[in-house]
């Protein structure tokens, strides 16, 4: 069991908007720690997508956005494209330890 | 730009010690404020944080692996290393190294960049 809970899979048609949730607890996200998101394309290393809850690194399209509220966070992807098909992971901090979500597989229909 | 590269044996026998090194190029591992970390991913599964080391040498380990993990840094070679003892088949995974930037409060924040990863198989 991962400390952060993500849905195993989500799907959407090209052009649509999808969201991926990341649910934590009062010892991690709810304690005020930031949430970060990664995209992992098949056979490659994870890539930073969102840091500090809602900040995009240089080069990440503004179709990707992050938010956080209470003990949860969300990643939203608008204008879905075939190249967005990947695994997505959230990450935060809990009791002096880094924690990851279990990952969500995004399928573009 | 900053690049990280993992290196080490791709095959380790059960009960032995897994040893990996991460070489940092394009920047100094001694840069203040950064952490350096190891993450692994078993085949077909999710990411698991193994541990991190602060530039000052302080270490932080995943409680589930703490008794078997040692992370160290060699500033003269711009490298940091992972040792995982008493390995079993469950330790078979792709092992990644990454730089860990602090958040606004100085706590470990996000991993970026990542190395390409190296597959380590535990088998006799």
Description:
The complex is a heterodimer of chains A (109) and B (124). By secondary structure, chain A is an all-beta fold. Chain A is 0% helix and 45% strand. Chain A contains no helices and nine strands. In chain A, strands 1, 3, 4, 7, 8 and 9 form a six-stranded mixed sheet that branches. Chain A has a three-stranded antiparallel sheet with strand order 2-6-5, with no helix packed on it. With 124 residues, chain B is mostly beta strands. Chain B has no helices and eleven strands. Chain B has strands at residues 3-7, 11-12, 18-25, 35-41, 48-54, 59-61, 69-74, 79-84, 93-102, 108-114, 118-122. In chain B, the strands form two sheets. In chain B, strands 2, 4, 5, 6, 9, 10 and 11 form a seven-stranded mixed sheet that branches. In chain B, strands 1-3-8-7 form a four-stranded antiparallel sheet, with no helix packed on it. The model of chain B has no long low-confidence stretch (mean pLDDT 95). The chains are: A mainly beta (109), B mainly beta (124). Chain A binds chain B through residues 2, 33-34, 36, 38, 44-48, 51-52, 57, 89, 91, 93, 96-103, and chain B through 37, 39, 46-49, 52, 60, 62-63, 96, 100-101, 103-104, 107-117.
What is the helical fraction of chain B, as a range of percent? under 10%
Task: Give the ordered list of helices and strands of chain B.
Answer: EEEEEEEEEEE
Output the number of helix runs of chain A: 0
> What is the helix/strand order of chain A?
EEEEEEEEE
List descriptors.
heterodimer, A: 109 residues, mainly beta, 45% strand, B: 124 residues, seven-stranded mixed sheet, 0% helix, globular
Give a quick precis of the structure:
Chain A is an all-beta fold. Chain A has strands spanning 9-12, 18-23, 36-40, 47-50, 64-69, 72-77, 86-94, 97-100, 104-108. Chain A is built from no helices and nine strands.
Task: Show the helix and strand layout.
The complex is a heterodimer of chains A (about 110) and B (about 120).
Chain A: E1 9-12, E2 18-23, E3 36-40, E4 47-50, E5 64-69, E6 72-77, E7 86-94, E8 97-100, E9 104-108
Parallel strand pairs in A: 1-9
Antiparallel strand pairs in A: 2-6, 3-4, 3-7, 5-6, 7-8, 7-9
Chain B: E1 3-7, E2 11-12, E3 18-25, E4 35-41, E5 48-54, E6 59-61, E7 69-74, E8 79-84, E9 93-102, E10 108-114, E11 118-122
Parallel strand pairs in B: 2-11
Antiparallel strand pairs in B: 1-3, 3-8, 4-5, 4-9, 5-6, 7-8, 9-10, 9-11
